[in-house]
Structures are given as structure tokens and as C-alpha cells.
Design a protein that fits this description.
Elements (H helix, E strand, L loop, with lengths): L2 H4 L2 H4 L3 E3 L6 E3 H4 E3 L11 E5 H14 L2 H4 L6
Antiparallel strand pairs: 1-2, 3-4
């Protein structure tokens, strides 16, 4: 039995995942953030939103929050 032919490097290294936001297929290790640090490099420990979409989401939601609207003098 030849294990080299049966096991490929793609099976050991997690290859690609499709982003839920932009729909592009990207490299899992390089393009997605890890959400669970305590586990090994399994596919479930990476997010389903790529790094670029995550950065864009944080930028847009951060710009919507206006800190001066919520601020007021304390009612003593």
C-alpha cells in the first residue's frame, strides 16, 4: 500500500474556503481570521468572512457610530 499516492498535501493543509460576503474562494490560512485559538489548524477554527470583508465591515460600522450624539452632561 502506497500512502504517498493516497494522502496529498492539500488534505493535510487546509486549502480554500468561500467567503460568505464577497463570494470569492480564497486561501483559508492566509485570507481568513482564526476565531478559536485553542484548537489546532482545523477548518472550523477559521471565520467564514475573509479579512478584506471584515476590515470593510468594521470601517463602515465604526463610521456610523457618532460618540458626540450619545454624550451628555451627567444628571447630578
Amino acid at each position: 500500500m502506497d500512502f504517498d499516492k493516497q494522502i496529498k498535501l492539500g488534505h493535510l493543509l487546509l486549502a480554500d474556503r468561500m467567503c460568505r460576503v464577497c463570494g470569492e474562494s480564497k486561501n483559508l490560512v492566509e485570507s481568513f481570521y482564526r476565531t478559536r485559538k485553542n484548537r489546532g489548524p482545523v477548518a472550523s477554527s477559521y471565520s467564514y468572512e475573509c479579512k478584506e470583508c471584515t476590515i470593510n465591515r468594521v470601517k463602515t460600522t465604526k463610521n456610523k457610530i457618532n460618540s458626540f450624539v450619545d454624550w451628555s452632561y451627567p444628571d447630578w
